[in-house]
Amino acid sequence: MINQTRQPLVPGHEITGIVRSVGKSVTKFKVGDRVGVGCFVDSCGECQYCRSGQEQFCERGVVSVFVGKDYDGSQRQGGYSQSIVVKDRFVLSIPDNLDLAEASPLLCAGITTYNPLKRYGIGHGSKAAIIGLGGLT
Questions:
Q1: Of 19, 26, 27, 66, which sits 20 to 30 A from 130 (CA to CA)?
Q2: What per-residue confidence (pLDDT) applies to 105?
Q3: In terms of DSSP bridges, do strands 15-18 and 63-64 run parallel, antiparallel, or are they unpaired?
Q4: Count of the separate structural domains present in the chain
Q5: Which pLDDT value is given to residue 1?
Q6: Which regions of the chain are under pLDDT 50?
Q7: pTM value?
Q8: Could you report the per-residue pLDDT of 98-131, keeping only the tens digit for each?
Q9: What is the C-alpha separation between 8 and 3, in angstroms, rounded?
């Protein structure tokens, strides 16, 4: 299958930045907040998977930050773009004492390696090996 991505395409995920505007129903964030976004920007929010916090299995199809289309048919642009629109449930607050550039890798590679450690109770004093490709190792 050939990828039919429309060009030009702006890649990138593991996004951090400052909120420039919010929708009228957004209450968790305000202009000026320091935030981060992983690789998803929207999902239906209504199917069994979305309601259980497993948006990656969204029956309608999760909307990725890059190389995909939004529900309205527009081409998504990634983290290297000047701005991006994200459903508020996919946005995380970044503490003031954490540099935005240092926080970015935590939003994908960091959580990918942290999640299994947390899930299986690997903690202080334990030893673990993480095997993977790219930024995960």
A1: 66
A2: 87
A3: unpaired
A4: 1
A5: 43
A6: 1-2
A7: 0.79
A8: 999 999 988 888 888 888 888 899 989 998 887 7
A9: 14
What residue type is 114 in one-letter code?
A: Y
CA distance 49 to 70: 19
User: Cβ-count burial of 75 within 10 angstroms (0-12 exposed, 13-18 middle, 19+ buried)?
Assistant: middle
Q: What angle do CA 64, 70, 73 make, to 5 degrees?
A: 145
Helices (H), the chain: 48-51, 100-103, 109-119
H or E segment and range at residue 104? none
CATH of the domain at 72: 3.90.180.10
Alpha-carbon gap, residue 37 to 40, rounded angstroms? 7
Is 8 a member of any domain? no
- Going from the C-alpha of 114 to that of each of 2, 85, 128, the distances in angstroms are 34, 27, 11
